[in-house]
TrEMBL record:
UniProt domain Nudix hydrolase: residue ranges: 30-230
Keywords on record: Hydrolase, Magnesium, Manganese, Metal-binding
GO MF, one example: hydrolase activity
Organism classification: Bacteria, Bacillati, Actinomycetota, Actinomycetes, Pseudonocardiales
Organism superkingdom: Bacteria
Official protein name in the record: NUDIX hydrolase
Organism name: Amycolatopsis bullii
Cofactor(s) the protein needs: Mn(2+); Mg(2+)
Length: 272
């Protein structure tokens, strides 16, 4: 799929787009992060799980996003029981070293569980269908009382990297005060599990067809960041969730530039 070089967003300056105070100084160093695009088959096609972030959040407050967040240093723990493509494979896809690839994939699983209640784990040959026994662990992960490695080891669970696929790589524009170097994963909702909105970071959550989410954004009912908008437009081309997972992807690092003109923002995409 060819990446467009420019993508125009009809949103007012200041609506979810921050600008750093020291505009003439060096840009902020981006923090490594992972995002997971959860998909399922709905009655009318592919649906994606979206969360409306609480207003006032330091990053993307009030925006509609996929579950995800920054890498915790403990996500690099090599003791995690692992099934599926190993860190070297993820490193080759995301253009990073193995240690970071491991940390990113662990962060993807951890953040997805914290923010949606979906746990991409199980035994070596089976995937969890009931995550209710791990409700307390979910809260402990969110408050950082326990690490992902500690939780999985204590529960006798294996991280299922085979449930994930690489999707994209975005870096926050240099003009913004908080920046993230984010790898996007995609995963199908495991059978028997349910995604919810039981997280302090979201005011509402739910499943929606990608084209409907874009329509809501165009009509002012929600705000989408450039990576979310473009990803939704890509997902709208698929008939089933399995088609999404099977889609060949060339992972190119996208570094957008924000251009403010006449009260609106033009986002120029620059593959690097």
């Amino acid at each position: 799929m060819e990446q467009p070089k420019e993508f125009v967003f009809d949103i007012p300056v200041g609506a979810g787009v921050a600008t750093r105070a020291n505009a003439d100084g060096p840009p902020a160093t981006p923090k490594d992060a992972a995002t997971v695009i959860l998909v399922q088959d709905g009655a009318d096609g592919v649906e994606v799980f979206l969360q409306h972030r609480v207003k006032g959040m330091p990053f993307a407050g009030g925006m509609t996003v996929f579950p995800g967040g920054g890498v915790d240093r403990r996500d690099a723990d090599t003791s995690v029981a692992w099934a599926g493509p190993d860190p070297s494979w993820w490193a080759s896809r995301f253009g990073c070293d193995e240690a970071l690839a491991r940390a990113l994939t662990c962060a993807a699983v951890r953040e997805t569980f914290e923010e949606s209640g979906v746990l991409l784990a199980g035994g070596a040959d089976e995937v969890l269908t009931d995550v209710t026994p791990y409700a307390a662990a979910r809260q402990a992960l969110e408050t950082r009382e326990v690490s992902l490695a500690g939780f999985l080891a204590g529960a006798g669970l294996t991280l299922r990297a085979d449930l994930l696929r690489p999707w994209a790589h975005w870096i926050t524009p240099e003009q913004e005060p908080r920046r993230y170097d984010t790898r996007f994963y995609v995963a199908k909702l495991p059978e028997g599990q349910e995604a919810d909105g039981a997280t302090s970071e979201a005011s509402s959550s739910g499943w929606q067809r990608p084209e409907d989410a874009i329509a809501d954004a165009r009509e002012g009912r929600r705000m989408l960041m450039p990576p979310t908008w473009l990803t939704l437009s890509e997902l709208a081309e698929f008939a089933t969730a399995d088609d999404v997972l099977a889609a060949p992807r060339e992972i190119v690092r996208i570094a957008p530039t924000l251009v403010r003109e006449n009260g609106h923002v033009r986002v120029v995409l620059e593959p690097r």
